[in-house]
Amino acid sequence: MKVLRFIIKIPDYIAVGLIKIYQFFFSTDHAFWARPDVFRICTYKPSCSEFTSQAILKYGLIPGSIMGLKRIIDCNPFSKGGYDPVPERYTLKRYKGKDAKPAYE
Predict the structure, then answer these.
(1) Cα separation of 9 and 61, whole Å?
(2) Is position 50 within any domain?
(3) Domain count of the chain?
(4) What is the pLDDT of residues 17-52, one digit of tens each?
(5) What are the C-alpha distances in Å from 48 to residues 2, 4, 5, 23, 65?
(6) Which site in 5, 62, 78, 84 is 20 to 30 Å from 103, CA atoms measured?
(7) 102 falls within a domain
(8) Phi and psi of 55, rounded to 5°?
């Protein structure tokens, strides 16, 4: 049974691996050449790529990707950003807890 579960999760692990490769080479917040302490682009915490990989591992490839895509669409220069973790239950709504404040503060 554990082997079957692992086989079913392989696409999730591949997607998360591709996100990690993107983060390492291209992300302005995570790459080996990036300086997020000096210049941070992402207005959300966790960043959109971290959020997407966490959502994929928690909810699966399709629902997690939908959550990540919605987050990426919401991430723009006019959004307030802030703390927005992967929710406990699947939802496309943004986190509105007491810690929801802009990531730059």
Answers:
(1) 9
(2) yes
(3) 1
(4) 999 999 999 988 888 888 877 777 788 889 999 999
(5) 30, 30, 27, 10, 11
(6) 62
(7) no
(8) -65, -40
